[in-house]
């Protein structure tokens, strides 16, 4: 019995070591704007949540619209797949290379929630519970001054290094994005001076400022209490609360706001 347990532990450690080595051979991960099992871009914030959790676990992760000028085959391409299940919701995450080969497949993320948004978000969080054992630290990102097209994973053609000048970006959560990413981010930001939001039954007011936005809670006594400020930086939108804590922020196409605090994203729904 002890020999069986020893062999099983050895195989598990070997597989984890192989996965870590393979994942660390790549410098970034591209997350699609939409998954096949839902309709609409970033539905239920699943895509932006995937990016958030990948970054948290050592990956240089980008939504498709945010990818800088990089060689296509230097990166991996994420997809979340819904598996058949009757009594619960099951999701798995796969990472493929530029030739569509599966480099990594996660454990199943399972949720027993009945409501779709809660179920999908819960199952996605469950996927990443096992990522702590991977200890990923991806390679430095090589950003080129000549735009490389990564529109499909079928086209694995790469240009020689002599055709482009490369700039190495260190492996950190803050990575300079392309001008296209800034354009997309700006397009998703509210354009009105004031916008009303709700979250967990509470009302909030988003006020446009010269530097970005200020977020206030509209209390029952009709007082506005400042929650923090949102600014556009090189790495994307950042929310800084009144205690000077900084978090990633994201507006979807409907102008709903998500602030990625710790393990639980906070989503504020815009009111029309």
Tell me what you see in this structure.
The protein is an alpha+beta fold and 272 residues long. It has 4 helices and 16 strands. It has helices spanning 2-24, 46-56, 116-127, 179-188, and strands at 28-31, 61-63, 75-83, 89-96, 102-105, 109-111, 141-144, 166-169, 194-199, 202-208, 212-218, 224-233, 236-241, 246-251, 257-261, 264-270. The chain is globular and about 55 Å long. Mean pLDDT is 80; it is low at 4-18, 147-165 and 169-179.
Comma- or semicolon-separated keywords:
single chain; 272 residues; alpha+beta; 8-stranded antiparallel beta barrel; 34% strand; globular
Present the secondary structure layout.
Layout: H1 2-24, E1 28-31, H2 46-56, E2 61-63, E3 75-83, E4 89-96, E5 102-105, E6 109-111, H3 116-127, E7 141-144, E8 166-169, H4 179-188, E9 194-199, E10 202-208, E11 212-218, E12 224-233, E13 236-241, E14 246-251, E15 257-261, E16 264-270
Parallel strand pairs: 1-2, 1-3
Antiparallel strand pairs: 3-4, 4-5, 4-6, 7-8, 9-10, 9-16, 10-11, 11-12, 12-13, 13-14, 14-15, 15-16
């Amino acid at each position: 019995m002890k020999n069986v347990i020893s062999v099983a532990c050895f195989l598990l450690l070997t597989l984890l070591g192989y996965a870590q080595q393979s994942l660390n051979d790549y410098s970034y991960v591209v997350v699609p704007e939409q998954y096949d099992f839902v309709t609409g871009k970033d539905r239920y914030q699943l895509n932006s949540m995937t990016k958030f959790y990948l970054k948290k676990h050592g990956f240089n992760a980008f939504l498709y619209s945010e990818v800088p000028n990089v060689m296509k085959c230097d990166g991996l391409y994420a997809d979340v797949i819904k598996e058949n299940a009757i009594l619960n919701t099951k999701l798995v995450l796969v990472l493929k290379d530029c030739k569509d080969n599966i480099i990594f497949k996660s454990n199943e993320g399972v949720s027993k929630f009945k409501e779709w948004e809660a179920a999908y978000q819960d199952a996605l969080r469950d996927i990443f519970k096992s990522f702590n054992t991977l200890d990923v630290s991806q390679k430095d990102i090589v950003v080129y001054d000549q735009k490389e097209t990564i529109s499909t994973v079928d086209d694995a053609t790469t240009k020689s290094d002599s055709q482009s000048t490369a700039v190495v970006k260190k492996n950190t959560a803050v990575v300079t994005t392309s001008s296209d990413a800034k354009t997309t981010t700006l397009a998703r930001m509210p354009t009105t001076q004031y916008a009303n939001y709700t979250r967990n039954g509470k009302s909030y007011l988003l006020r446009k400022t010269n530097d970005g936005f200020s977020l206030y809670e509209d209390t029952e006594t009709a007082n506005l209490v400042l929650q923090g400020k949102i600014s556009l930086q090189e790495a994307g939108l950042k929310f800084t609360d009144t205690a000077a804590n900084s978090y990633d922020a994201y507006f979807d196409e409907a102008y709903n706001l998500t602030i990625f605090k710790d393990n639980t994203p906070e989503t504020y729904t815009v009111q029309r």
